[in-house]
Design a protein that fits this description.
The mean pLDDT is about 95. The protein folds into 2 domains: about 130 residues, Oxidized Rhodanese, domain 1; about 120 residues, 3-Layer(aba) Sandwich (Oxidized Rhodanese, domain 1), CATH 3.40.250. A 5-stranded parallel sheet has the order 1-5-4-2-3, with helices on both faces. The protein has a 4-stranded parallel sheet with strand order 7-6-10-11. It is an alpha/beta fold. The two termini are about 25 Å apart. Helix 5 crosses helix 10.
Length: about 290
């Protein structure tokens, strides 16, 4: 695997503030994901957001319609995504800054989807809205009107894995499970729990400290065992937390592939192998 150019994947609150003050063309997107009985994040956005920021509902704009085999978070339809990008004012050369008030993985999923769709210059606001507020950045209650961007979606601009690809990679390369350790370990008494045999556990939350992406030195130490030049892929429960793995590795110049269906798609086929416990185990295809 040849290293990719080291890509800037985050922007600090002070950098964003300077860009907005200088009227640099930047499209700002605030991503919100509904969670159980928690208040709708759209209400927080309406009460005050970064000036000019468009609200992006996670469920409808960053996830396609699930079927019986796609898992919880399939990719959105290209045509639908292009329509939304244009409504946010995204053009071919736009700089897009995504952020959230929630788990950094929510913004990382937006970063990944836009990059997968061919938007070249996408940055995550390091620390999310909390960093903007800590800086003293202004908030606005005005809702930006629908724009008329000209973005053209090019699906597949970042690599993806099918279930078959993920299985092969677990045997021949580095497949990283970004779920929490307890989800990775599973329960031998419960079917549908555990991990893909051969996959290694590095929780997506380990990529951040205080909501900010860890330094290059820290990330290199975290992924040291997986930076030997072989292909790296990532999965999680439904294709969200694993985007933080792709983001972190991109900051090091490593282009990792995402298995969008992830565990929720993997287990739809009972013929696919699973294992429990804290060790990777051996994927059947790795046997001599």
């Amino acid at each position: 695997m040849c290293p990719a150019p080291v890509r800037k994947v985050t922007i600090s609150a002070s950098e964003l503030d300077a860009a907005l003050r200088e009227n640099t063309p930047v499209v700002v997107l605030e991503v919100g994901r509904k969670a159980g009985e928690s208040p709708d994040p759209r209400h927080s956005y309406a009460a005050g957001h970064i000036p000019g920021a468009h609200y992006v509902p996670f469920e409808s704009d960053l996830v396609g319609r699930p079927t019986g085999t796609t898992g919880h978070g399939p990719l959105p339809r290209a045509g639908d995504l292009q329509e939304r990008l244009r409504a946010w004012g995204v053009d071919g050369g736009s700089t897009v800054v995504v952020h959230t008030r929630q788990n950094p993985a929510v913004a990382a999923r937006a970063w990944w989807i836009l990059r997968w769709a061919g938007v070249e210059d996408v940055l995550c606001l390091d620390g999310g809205l909390a960093a903007w507020q800590a800086l003293g950045g202004p908030l606005d209650t005005g809702i930006p009107p629908k724009a008329a961007g000209a973005a053209v979606v090019r699906p597949g601009s970042l690599p993806v894995l099918t279930a078959e690809d993920a299985g092969r990679l677990a045997a021949t390369g580095h497949l990283i499970d970004a779920r929490a350790p307890e989800a990775y370990a599973g329960d031998p008494q419960r079917t549908g729990t555990g991990h893909i045999p051969g996959a290694y556990s590095i929780p997506g939350s380990d990529n951040f400290t205080g909501g900010e992406l860890r330094t290059a030195t820290e990330l290199k130490a975290l992924y040291a065992a997986h930076l030997d030049g072989r292909v790296v892929g990532a999965y999680c429960g439904g294709g969200v937390s694993a985007t933080t793995t792709v983001l972190a590795l991109a900051s090091l110049g490593i282009e990792a592939a995402l298995y969008p269906g992830s565990w929720s798609a993997w287990i739809t086929d009972p013929a696919r192998p699973t294992t429990t416990g804290t060790e990777p185990g051996a994927h059947p295809s790795a046997a001599p």
